[in-house]
Amino acid sequence: MRINYMNDNESSNLARTIRKYREARKMTMKQLSIKSGIKLSTIKKYETDNRNPKLEQLEKIAAALDVSVFEFLDIEVKSISDIISLVNKMNNATEIEWDIDNEKVSISFKNEDINNSLKDYALDYRCKDINIENESSDSEATLTRLMLINNSLK
């Protein structure tokens, strides 16, 4: 598994992601600056793609926007081991319920808020899959809405 947070190819996506969550929270750059403790001029540089934030800065921005820092990271999952590692992290953070049969393994969470958010995402994803003419920005809006529901896990 590889995590990038300052790759030149990803920086414009990072700038858009910061702006997307700031606007979804109806915050100005100045409000984000105050809440994150990062200078306004620096926030402007991040959002205009003139500067790449360090991980510590991303953590401050994520906390100010009340989203996970993972929203700003590009995580490449390349192997079964990577997937097992991610499932293990989820299992450590919240209790997973396992349903195992001969053909497949299904997981759900004891936390109903997580299950409901995942259900909303899955239904939206399935709908977008059927209606190919819908733009990806629609599914991004749903994901953004779900990510802004930042409930504790346990």
Automatic annotation (TrEMBL):
The keyword DNA-binding applies. One of its GO terms (molecular function) is DNA binding. Keywords: DNA-binding, Plasmid. Gene3D superfamilies: lambda repressor-like DNA-binding domains. GO terms for cellular component: cytosol. It holds the Pfam family HTH_3. Residues 18-72 form the HTH cro/C1-type domain. This is HTH cro/C1-type domain-containing protein.
